[in-house]
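Regression test attached.
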Amino acid sequence: MEIDRVDGRTPNQLRPLACSRSILNRAHGSANWSQGETKVLAAVYGPKAGTKKNENPEKACIEVIWKPKTGQIGKPEKEYETILKRTLQSICLLTVNPNTTTSVIVQVVNDDGALLPCAINAACAALVDAGIPLKNLAVAICCCLTDSGYVILDPNKLEEQKMKAFVYLVFPNSILSVLPEGSSQIGGEPMEHGVITSVTHGVMSVDDYLHCLQRGRAASAKLSDFLRRNLQSHSPGDLSKAG
Amino acid sequence: MSNDLSSEMEVDAFRRLFPLRFHERHLQESIRPDARPLGKARDTSVALGAVASADGSALAKIGCTTMLAAIKMEVMTPTTESADEGCIAIDFHMPPICSPLVRPGRPAEAAPVISKQLSDTILSSGMINLKELSLVSGKAAWMAYLDIYCLDADGALFDAALLSAVAAFSHLQIPVVSLNDDGRVVVVSDEDGGKLEKEPVNKEKRKLKLSSIPFSLTCVLHKNYILADPTAEEESVMETILTVVLDSSFQLVSLYKPGGPVLAQTSVIQDCVALTRQRLKELQKILNEAVSDMEED
């Protein structure tokens, strides 16, 4: 391989994933998601009655509170909150519980690169744990572009700082559907190839971006499988902590 | 098709009661409520030097969206890590005057997000070489405070804010400074500028060299339609927003899509980039005209 990564991974290799759910007693749903040393804890409370000001009461409202590891929240955290909120809004069925608010609290436990994708994955698992109706799951991935034009996936903090550019991408999880094959295609492409969220940092060519998109898609399939297996392995009938 | 009450009520009432259907009826005819075709941006204008007391300023208008940007330069001591670099601090303000959604006392949610996006875009695009803002290496450098005020928020806020920021930087005149007897950097005011015996530190470097200027276009995605440069109404009715920022050599500086019900397929992304390329040429022309108008005066 032409690039050496600090931790000896291949360019396409993700860090070890781990996800545990229902770890908080009082929260309606919670999840702990880690990618290598990056670790995020998410809790979901709700749906609670009423929506906040300036929100559409005909739909459910999602509120995201981002708690950094230390210190006050600043502009980057506000941006993360907005991106996370809009991403979650697009995967939730907002018309099932109109005029309610669901709070998602994201606590950063450790930041070792690819923080926002990790938080999106954690929030998504926590929403499932809370039983919030969702259209589909979302999987988030970080792609980095090196100076020499190579794409590496899921960078750690050291790699992230050295990179020319990086892209955060969120894709929908593939739906296991009873509908015939191909019915969920949009314009000749399968649904899970569509981008829910894209955030880029740094200058790159359009072709490099499309290349990142392609690699991100391939990796998101692996993440999707992990998420689905993890959700299924959870013991069914665990409803004791409802309310 | 037309059993949706549209034939039975006034247009304004229909627009209020069924905003989505109102827009979809337009989209079917490939037209928008303000008579624009889907891919066309609103009329754009840039006026330089709108704030006389600032070192650089510009007023940018895209349709009704109005942004006022002003730059103040201050001398600071650079940090030891970047001893020969200046610094740029960007802040975006949304006062209550700009939109009915912003209440006094409570800051608008969108403001810090746009502020962060702007500084990411301007700093990562490499438009400004921070070394040019250095005065005396390790001792003194310029701190550029760029403040952007939104006066009227009618959609595509980021586009207008970026345009006003870029225009303000191209209007920027760096004040003349010299070293005084204590070795401190002082600004030479116009009145005693001729009498000063000390040679100014930055006699030549009064203008910043702007390379690869970034320009952006925001699009709204709805079903298979791509609407360039949406108004506030279009943004609120159709929620999927995609912003592309390209620099003058067509490199991608940012592709920002925060969620939204419509998924962006590769072809959609390519279409948006193509629209941005066209828009970039328009904006370059508008900015160049504004700069040459300014130089004539």
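Expected vs. actual: identical. Helices of chain A lie at 75-91, 115-130, 157-162, 206-233.
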